[in-house]
From TrEMBL:
Keyword match Coiled coil: no
UniProt keyword annotations, A-Z: Ribonucleoprotein, Ribosomal protein
Protein name (Swiss-Prot/TrEMBL): Large ribosomal subunit protein uL30
Species the sequence originates in: Serpentinimonas raichei
Family the UniProt entry places it in: Belongs to the universal ribosomal protein uL30 family.
């Protein structure tokens, strides 16, 4: 993986109390606990997932 084609995301808010599909999106991005970090390929699907739950995430 090259750094130009990756996104690093961090879970900064808890998905507790969020909609079930938003919790599933958090899990789909590979995030479990608050402050967990995931490095993912920069694809349109991943960008859509990040956009959907942007209020829970920080893109580093």
């Amino acid at each position: 993986m090259t750094t130009a084609n990756t996104l690093t995301i961090k879970l900064v808010r808890s998905p507790i109390g969020c909609r079930a599909d938003h919790r599933a999106t958090v899990r789909g991005l590979g995030l479990r606990k608050i402050n967990s970090v995931s490095v993912l390929q920069d694809t349109p699907a991943v960008r859509g997932m990040i956009n959907k739950i942007s209020y829970l995430l920080q893109v580093i």
